[in-house]
Amino acid sequence: MKIYLVRHGMDEEGYRGGWSDRGLTEQGLIQSEKLGEHLHRYAEEYNIHTIMSSDLPRAVQTTHEIEKRLNMQASLMKDWREMNNGDMAGMLHKDAEEYYPGFYFNTLEMDSAFPGGESPRDFYNRISTSFESLLRDIEEHTIQSNVLLITHGGVINILYYLLEKKEWSNKSSFYPMGNTSVHTVEKGAHSWKLSNANVLSHLD
Questions:
Q1: At 145, which CATH number?
Q2: Considering the entire predicted model, what is its pTM?
Q3: Helix axis angle, 57-70 relative to 26-41, nearest 10°?
Q4: Low-confidence residues of the chain, pLDDT below 70?
C-alpha cells in the first residue's frame, strides 16, 4: 500500500498563497505535464488506482494534467487545501504588508488565526484528521490503493512531521519539496513510513 504525495506545479509569485484562487504559471503547467507523462510512462510501477486532490485552482490544474494522461478522474477535496489565510488569500504581498502588518504564517501563535482564516493549530488538526481518515480508508479497502494525492507544500510538511512522529508548529523547519515533487509513503509491517522524498527526476 502506497500514497504518492505531490506538491502542485509552480504558481504565480508576488501574492499570498493559502486559499488563493490564483493558478499555475506557464512553467507550472509544463511541470505538471511532465509529471503526468512520467506517471503514464511508468504506470505499471506506480500502479495508481485512486487520485485525490485539493480543490484549490493551482492543485486542480496540476491534477488535470495528470488525469488526462492516466485517463482517470480525481476526487477534489477541501480537506487537502493549504492553510486558510482568510482575508489575505491571493493578496499582493505589498498590500498584505500594508493592511495586515506582521501577519505571516510563522509569526502567528499556534492558536492565533489569520483574519477570517485558520490558526496553525486548526490547520494541523485538519490535516492530521484527514490523513488518519485516509490511512484508515486504505487499510479497510474503502479507498483503493495506491493513492496519488496532489496537495500543497504546507500540507506535505505537516505529513512529514506526523510520519516521523515529531512535534510540529508553524515555526518548525520546512522539509525540501519542489513544485510537482513526489514523496512516497508506504505501509510497512507496523506503520506507514516515508520511503522516498522530493523526487523531481521527471523534470530532467
A1: 3.40.50.1240
A2: 0.95
A3: 30
A4: none
